[in-house]
Design goal:
CATH superfamily of the largest domain: Cyclin-like
Structural class: mainly alpha
Function: Stabilizes TBP binding to an archaeal box-A promoter. Also responsible for recruiting RNA polymerase II to the pre-initiation complex (DNA-TBP-TFIIB).
Number of strands: 3
Shape: extended
Radius of gyration: 26 Å
Distance between the termini: 53 Å
GO cellular component, one term: transcription preinitiation complex
CATH class of the largest domain: Mainly Alpha
Oligomer: single chain
CATH topology of the largest domain: Cyclin A, domain 1
Strand order of the largest sheet: 1-2-3
Keywords: Metal-binding, Repeat, Transcription, Transcription regulation, Zinc, Zinc-finger
Helix content: 40-55%
CATH architecture of the largest domain: Orthogonal Bundle
Organism: Candidatus Nitrosopumilus koreensis AR1
Largest sheet: 3 strands, antiparallel
Strand content: under 5%
Pfam families: TFIIB (PF00382), Zn_Ribbon_TF (PF08271)
């Protein structure tokens, strides 16, 4: 759909324009910004008798890349613009140019550290199935840690894991310390020490983890039905009204509510099944079930 056919969701007018300098798409009537950081994806300069595709477009700038996605790279294919193979001497020259181009991107030790850290962060994204927004936030936290010189003398893996866990906490994405530590291949104690460090030095403000948000994850791991999930949410909301959730582990509360809901609906799941799906012990489920049963 072209911009002329796009309607403003606020005023409903067909007055959407693009500002090339500010890279924003906005409504000229009410001023509502519809999109930002817009890149020109139109074709470049072409000649009438040329068969070469001159279209140019690029990804949006992102903190999850060492160079924020602004750098360019030399074509890895040993062919010219017409598709013909290059000579042996030209291939050798291009190979040397690519090598120095890759070296020139890393200026100092901080850049080298950041490049390695962001590479590890992208691996964690795939292992933990995290959205781009969480990775973007984790990259921002790690960059701030690098500016504060918190990386010196400490493990890159531990600080990357701590930044990722902090980003998950801020975005209320249910990921436990043990999950992050296991995915990175470090000890939980090392991760908690790094997390306390960046939490104190960067003065982060973390929201309280909502136990209701943990239900979907545990139910998926335990292969429980949608009806069981809804009943578990009702149990937790009822307990929250009676102030029974304060000071208790959110994952333990969610697992206990799912166990009670599955028992009511006769979905045969043992305490061990639910505990393994939540990454907690059976004792925790038994203790939390006692308090939840008083609510019910």
């Amino acid at each position: 759909m072209s911009l002329q056919e796009t309607k403003c969701p606020r005023c409903g007018k067909n007055a959407v324009v693009t500002d090339v300098e500010s890279q924003e798409v906005f409504c000229s009537k009410c001023g509502m910004v519809l999109d930002e950081k817009v890149h020109d994806s139109g074709p470049g300069r072409t000649f009438t008798n040329s068969t070469t595709n001159k279209s140019h477009s690029g990804d949006k700038t992102t903190l999850a890349r060492h160079d924020r996605g602004l750098s360019t790279m030399i074509n890895p294919f040993d062919k010219d613009s017409s598709g013909n193979p290059l000579s042996v001497s030209m291939k050798s020259s291009l190979k040397r140019l690519r090598k120095w181009d890759s070296r020139s991107r890393v200026k100092n030790n901080d850049d080298r550290n950041l490049q390695q850290a962001l590479s590890e962060l992208l691996k964690l994204k795939e292992k933990l199935s995290l959205p781009d927004a969480v990775i973007e936030k984790a990259s921002y936290i790690y960059r701030k840690s690098l500016e504060k010189k918190l990386v010196r003398g400490r493990s890159i893996a531990a600080l990357v894991s701590a930044a990722l866990y902090a980003a998950c906490r801020e975005s209320e994405t249910p990921r436990t310390l043990q999950e992050v530590a296991t995915s990175m291949g470090i000890k939980k104690k090392e991760l908690t020490a790094s997390y306390r460090l960046i939490f104190k030095e960067l003065e982060l403000k973390m929201p309280v983890v909502d136990s209701v948000s943990c239900i979907a994850k545990i139910a998926s791991n335990a292969d429980l039905s949608e009806k069981t999930k809804r009943n578990a949410m009702k149990i937790l909301k009822k307990a929250e009204k009676q102030n029974e959730l304060a000071g208790k582990h959110p994952m333990g509360l969610a697992a206990s509510a799912l166990y009670l809901a599955s028992a009511d609906l006769e979905e045969n799941r043992t305490q061990k099944d639910i505990a393994d799906a939540a990454g907690i012990t059976e004792v925790t489920i038994r203790n939390r079930c006692k308090s939840l049963r008083t609510v019910l």
